[in-house]
Every structure is written in structure tokens, then in C-alpha cells.
Fold this sequence. Notes:
Number of helices: 12
Distance between the termini: 36 Å
Structural class: alpha+beta
Strand order of the largest sheet: 5-6-7-11-10
Amino acid sequence: MKGMSDTSALPTIVLDMPDPEPAPPRPAAGGVLRTVLTEPFRARVWKELTYLVIALGLGGIAVAYLLLGFGGGLYASIVLIGIPILAVVILGGRVWGRIYRVLCSVLLGSPLPEPPQFTFRPGIWGWLRGAFTDRTSWRALLFLLIQSVHGMVIGYLTLVVVAMTGFLALSPIPWAFGNTTNVDENGVEHHSMLQFGDFYIDTWPRTLAVSVVGITGCFLLPWLIRAVCHLHRLLALWLLTPTERDRRMAELQASRRAAVEDSTATLRRLERDLHDGTQARLVSIAMMLGRAEERLAAGGDADELIAQARTGSKEALTELRELVRGIHPPALELGLEPALETLAARCAVPVELRVLLPVRPSPAIEAIAYFSVAELLTNVVKHAGANRIWVAVLPSGPNTLLVTVRDNGQGGALQPAERPGETTVAGGLSGLAARARSVDGTLHVDSPVGGPTVITMSLPVTGP
């Protein structure tokens, strides 16, 4: 049943929202003990320890970079040459940021997104202005300043704790084979490497007890190292990744690029259709009328040519109507609901339609919703192998509408992405996603292999 004559038979369309994550099971006592005993031997711990060592060394270099760079630049600015030096020092923050992002990705297992590229402005003054107002560089320099203190102070203390713990764990070896003698205030010699006030570690039981403390610390050190590295990771995530404003600008640029590409593709399609179809037919009609005019001038019969020209003109008008409908469907003049009813009636697969629009959307939103549903219906007919389609246009809040297309086909609209564990939509749906983003909308695809496929587009009622 097509159209809206039987809405009671419509299935309930449930948006594919992620299920609440169940609480992680409490690890058994044996699992905790196994984790504690094996953690020091995991590659992750050694990578994080390597990161702390590198961060300690880079911290010293960074302090010298900041002091010499800004100090020398400010001093040389007296003769103006320091201004370009300061600009180079500021832009150098981007290089430092890239170094630390690579370290976080390789050693901490936390890939960080790249910030926007530096925008070069023409001329020396444009370049200087761009350098001194580059927010990404200043944020990277702030990270460098905090990271220098954090890496050198906290990192140094952490490494000292690691070294002391390792020394305590191995202390029986130098105590047994080394010549370690201490003399107390009474002149008594003690075979000891460690002492705590007047208490000397000078017997095997005491030495082994200290070693046990050190070995125990070795199994606890991974958590200390991880906590310190987590602070480094949070700092990098805060200052070395794109801000919300940067992400918003990137989305707007992608949306504008998608809109331009879509309009360019539409224009090319119209030009091709007009050139290959309507224009050729009009040329044929003109030639027929010319031949008819020649026959009439010679006193012959031109009825057949005139009839062919009339038929060709009707076909040309039909093609023009189809082209106009591809630009802006006449059914949209009456609203989105009648236009979608027309699509449902023309679809080769039975479509059940439900539309509820308390407020009529803006013309741009109506056009996006109409063409998106039209493309989705075409995809279902061509690729899904479905025998039923459900389309719903329902409000979601005061300023948002949800356009949902569901079919009972074979699914599989999601494709594996380049990164393991991620997916991406098929090529045609990516264009719909870009079209939705152009008006601050979203596209959600739920299409497991075997079906069903549910595609939900969220659009603002009045556009961006």
C-alpha cells in the first residue's frame, strides 16, 4: 500500500542509538594478581618509561629554546631584525607540537588529530601578522612551557623513584660482592650500602627485606608511570589538538566544498542533458520545419514532416519538464509531504510513508530532504534487494526533523574503514552526509550485513 492510506500498518521506526554500556565486571582476585605480576613486563610500560626519559631531555631543550628564542628575539627587536626572529620562534611551536604528537602516538598509544595548517598571507607583513596571530602556535608554546616544567620536575622525580626502586630490588648483589663498609660514630664497621639514621642494612635478612620492598615497588611502578603519562596525554589533548572552533571551521569548509561540488556536478549534468537531449531534438525539429517549408514552397505535401516536428516538440517539452523537476520538483511547491507522496507512488518497491510536520521547513531543507529520500529510494531499488520500504519524516524537538528511510533488504551499506574497528558509508551515502552537514545536519547509518538498513538524517527546520 503506497501513500498514507494505511499508517496503522507502519512498523515503529526506532533510531539506532547505542545501548548503554554495561558496567565492567569486577575482576576476580586472581585476575588482579595476574595483572599486577605481568604489568612490568608489558611493552606499554617500557614505552611509557621511554616517553618520560625523552620528555625529560626535550624539556631541557625546550627551556633553552624558549629562553634563547624569545630573549634573543626581544633583544634584537630593537633593530627590527628581532621581529622576524620572534615570528619564526612562534611558528616553531608547530614543529614542537608535531614532535610531541608523534611521541604520543608511538609511545603512549594515543594518536592525536592534526590542528589546522598555517595560512600563509601574501607579503612579509601578511606573514608576520599570520605568525603573531596563529592560535595553534601559541597553544603549542603554552604546551611547551607547561610540558617543560612537568617533564623536568615530575618526570625527573618519577625517574628517580624508578631508579631507587630498581636499586633496592638489586641491592643484595652489590652488597654481597662489593666492598661496602660504613663506620658509625662509635668506630664500629658495618658491611652496609644503606642506612637509615643509626639503622644499618648490614645483614642478609635486612638486605633481603630491602630487596623485597624494592621488588614489590617494581610491580607497583607501572601504575605510577601510567599516571604521570596520563597527565602528559591530557595536556597534549588539551593544547595540541584542534579546538572546537577549529573543528567547526573544518566542518564548514568541508560543507562548503561539498555544496560547491554538488552544484558543479548538477550544472554539468544539466549541460550534458540539454546538449545531448533537448538541444539535439530542437535542432531536429528545426531541420524538419525547414524541409517542410521547402516542400510547401515547391507545392508538395509537408504534413508528415509537420507531424514529426509536433511529436518532437512534445518530447522536448517532456525532457525539459524532467530537467526542471531535477532542479526543483514542482511538487515541492505544495510542500514536502505531497512531494514525498509522489516519490512513493513512483517507486518500484512498495513504500509506506508517514509525515508529521507541525511547522513547514524552509525551501532549502525541503529540497535536501526530498532529494535525499529520492536517492535513498533509488539505492534501495538498485542495491538492497528489498521488497518493502518505510519512510518517515517526524519532528525531533522544536527545530529539528528526522528523515528516516528503512528497508528490509540485505544491508551492508557500511564498509570497513582504513583504521581497524572503524567503518565508513558507501560512496553514494557519503554525498548525502556532506549534503546534511552543509546545513548543520547529520546522517546516521545502521546497516548490518543481512539487514535491515535504517538511515536517519537529522536536519534543522529552518536551515543554518
